[in-house]
Design goal:
Elements lengths: L7 E7 L14 E2 L2 E2 H13 L3 E5 L3 H7 L6 E4 L7 H12 L5 E6 L7 H10 L6 E7 L2 E9 L3 H5 L8 H4 L5 E6 L10 H12 L1
Parallel strand pairs: 1-4, 1-6, 4-5, 7-9
Antiparallel strand pairs: 2-3, 6-8, 7-8
Helix pairs in contact: 1-4
């Protein structure tokens, strides 16, 4: 069962080349703050130094945008293969010390530290449990994955993310509703729309 000493690490996936965006969207700004820096701040508010940033494309600039980074980072040389490779690398990097990981993306700017804390709070401590975010009639990241999922997360490859684990009968899936997680930034137009709505 979960104890106050359970080690929960935050994993920020920020390695992609963002081909639909046309440039490194991790470095795009919303409300005067780069998206990746915002994600790093939210993660470290929740998990402190137990935060792992996964970089790849334009990694020096992405890493620099997060300074000072409270935690550590890994470089995914295979980032062009897709998000699955980044998540697998991250989990392999910390699986020996983590009881669970909270996975978040750099392109969901409305995700809050309070929501990440709610995911952790919902986790019972069961090693086979996943606590996903429910939004827009679906569920996904940010999500907490307990240590019993690490073998399958470590084996992900290519553009195959963790969503298939949510459908795996081997795991118990809990959900925390957070509709704002439905907002993700794939294109420059998405960012412009979000900025417009925030100021209208």
């Amino acid at each position: 069962m979960k104890s106050k000493d359970s080690a929960v690490y935050a994993i920020i996936l920020a390695a992609g080349s963002a081909t639909r965006f046309g440039s490194s969207k991790q470095l795009a700004e919303w409300n005067g703050e780069k998206l990746v820096r915002r994600a790093a701040a939210v993660a470290t508010q929740t998990c402190g130094a137990q935060t792992l940033l996964v970089v790849g494309h334009d990694w020096q600039a992405v890493h620099s945008a997060c300074q000072p980074l409270c935690g550590c980072f890994v470089i995914n040389d295979q980032h062009a293969a897709g998000i699955g490779s980044s998540l697998a690398l991250a989990v392999r990097s910390i699986r020996q010390v983590a009881d669970a990981v909270v996975v978040l993306l750099a392109d969901q700017p409305l995700v809050t530290a309070e929501h990440l804390a709610a995911l952790i709070e919902r986790w019972s401590g069961d090693a086979r449990e996943i606590v996903a975010t429910a939004y827009a009639d679906t569920s996904g990241v940010p999500a907490l994955f307990a240590s019993g999922t690490f073998d399958k997360l470590s084996a992900l490859c290519g553009d195959q993310g963790a969503r298939k684990l949510l459908l795996d009968p081997e795991f118990v899936v809990q959900q925390v509703e957070f509709e704002a997680a439905a907002i993700d930034i794939d294109t420059v137009a998405d960012l412009a729309s979000l900025s417009h709505n925030a100021h209208s």
